[in-house]
TrEMBL record:
<protein>
    <recommendedName>
        <fullName>MOSC domain-containing protein</fullName>
    </recommendedName>
</protein>
<dbReference type="GO" id="GO:0003824">
    <property type="term" value="F:catalytic activity"/>
</dbReference>
<dbReference type="InterPro" id="IPR052716">
    <property type="entry name" value="MOSC_domain"/>
</dbReference>
<dbReference type="Pfam" id="PF03473">
    <property type="entry name" value="MOSC"/>
</dbReference>
<dbReference type="InterPro" id="IPR011037">
    <property type="entry name" value="Pyrv_Knase-like_insert_dom_sf"/>
</dbReference>
<dbReference type="GO" id="GO:0030151">
    <property type="term" value="F:molybdenum ion binding"/>
</dbReference>
<feature type="domain" description="MOSC">
    <location>
        <begin position="18"/>
        <end position="142"/>
    </location>
</feature>
<dbReference type="InterPro" id="IPR005302">
    <property type="entry name" value="MoCF_Sase_C"/>
</dbReference>
<dbReference type="GO" id="GO:0030170">
    <property type="term" value="F:pyridoxal phosphate binding"/>
</dbReference>
């Protein structure tokens, strides 16, 4: 089980996302109003709170949304989940579609720190079923086929 620490959205691509208290996640689309939502395989981006905190401990000055992540979750190591893993939160059902993302233009974080965590720690998912999420909601990793809870 994990807990949503932050929900972040942006209206334009290429800008840092801003934290919001709640969001409506639309089936086969992503977070309503987010520039990265759409009919493709990277509808929602997820990053573990632990990965961000470890990066901060190495001297990074980053705020929620700086990596372009939609959901920051405490207690789930997203990078360890295989593609196809399903994640549930309230009525929302996500399916991991991609692990990591190449940093083509090397973001500002890369230029400052010499690295960025999104290529190894960022996870992307498709929305199989939509619904509302709020900061503080619990998120559960489901077993790949049986639909039973798996340890996170």
């Amino acid at each position: 089980m994990g807990k949503i620490i932050a929900i972040c959205t942006s209206q334009k691509k290429g800008t840092a996302k801003k934290a919001v208290d709640q969001a409506n996640i639309l089936e086969n689309h992503g977070i309503e109003g987010d520039a990265h939502a759409g009919n493709w395989h990277r509808q929602v981006s997820l990053l573990s709170w632990q990965a961000i905190e470890a990066f901060k401990a190495r001297g990074a000055l980053v705020a929620n949304g700086c990596f372009g992540e939609n959901l920051i979750v405490d207690g789930i190591d997203f990078a360890a989940l295989p593609v196809g893993t399903r994640i549930a939160c309230n009525d929302v059902l996500l399916e991991v579609s991609q692990i990591g993302k190449e940093c083509h233009s090397h973001c500002q974080i890369f230029h400052t720190m010499g690295e960025c965590i999104m290529p190894t720690q960022g996870v992307f998912a498709k929305v199989l079923h939509g619904g509302a999420v709020r900061t503080g909601d619990m998120m559960e990793v489901l077993a790949p086929s049986a639909g039973e809870a798996a340890p996170a």
